[in-house]
Amino acid sequence: MDQLIGGAPGAGAPGANAADLIKDSNQQTFAQDVIDVSMQVPVIVDFWAPWCGPCKQLGPLIEKVVKEAKGAVRLVKINVDESQALAAQLRIQSIPAVYAFFQGRPVDGFVGAQPESQLKQFVQRLAKMGAAGAGPSPVDEALEQAEAAFAEGDFGAASAIFGQVLDHESDNAKAIAGLVRCSIATGDLAGAKEMLEGVTPELLKNPAIGSAVSQLELAEAGQKAAGQTQQLQARIDANPKDFEARHDLAIAQFAAGEREAAIDQLLEIFKANRAWNEDAARKQLVKFFEAMGPTDPLTLAGRRKLSSLMFS
Prior knowledge:
Elements: H1 18-21, E1 22-25, H2 30-36, E2 43-48, H3 53-68, E3 74-79, H4 84-89, E4 97-102, E5 105-111, H5 116-129, H6 138-151, H7 155-168, H8 173-185, H9 189-197, H10 201-204, H11 207-225, H12 229-238, H13 243-255, H14 259-272, H15 276-292, H16 297-310
Parallel strand pairs: 1-3, 2-3
Antiparallel strand pairs: 2-4, 4-5
């Protein structure tokens, strides 16, 4: 593993026509403009609004830096006023918010206006990541091994590899999030919480760590609801409009790995009474989506169903 970590990624980047570098998008075309394109080249997504002063400062600067990168990255701009459902699903709480996607996954991001020097460094990191003909960096290879071990249920091996990544890059958001997820998977919720308490406010804005935070919140809530699924289902059978029971059952089901059933419970609440308990069903769905990640098939399907209900 020590031989894998510490190398430098290659250089080079794919070209692009100037018209392809920057485009406006919305919640309907997000998957096509961002997820699909990011399979080939890193895509920066700028969430903004016309009334946002810092957005007006950031917008021209980030466009300038992207153009200077000459095709190494793309920029997609999304007006949150016109794509409120998407902004809610991605938990955009303040703007400007910038996410970077590569190969269908969020890989970096920040919130608030940034100086041009910081933007150049941000774009340069992404450009190296997507350089034409370059294989993954040693750290990326290690992270892939850790994720593979995690997917196979070997949480000890995954933790060890994530830890080695942090020995080389102490602020690697993916490795921090990976360790938190390992602790959650092994039932060490206190350890996961302690790990997150040591994370800087800036790193907490990273999508990978945000997802881990949501997973911890759901695991804690699911732990409280554990053992009550039969009782909650009985309440729903007796009264299908017992939304509190549906909400609690959804959390318990999600924690137990029954994610699709959990999503359906919350969609049922939203369909019947979207305003129930101050929009609790939609807010909980957003937490589910964040915990699963933006490219998870259940996230994509759930978002489509939620958007359909919201605009029906």
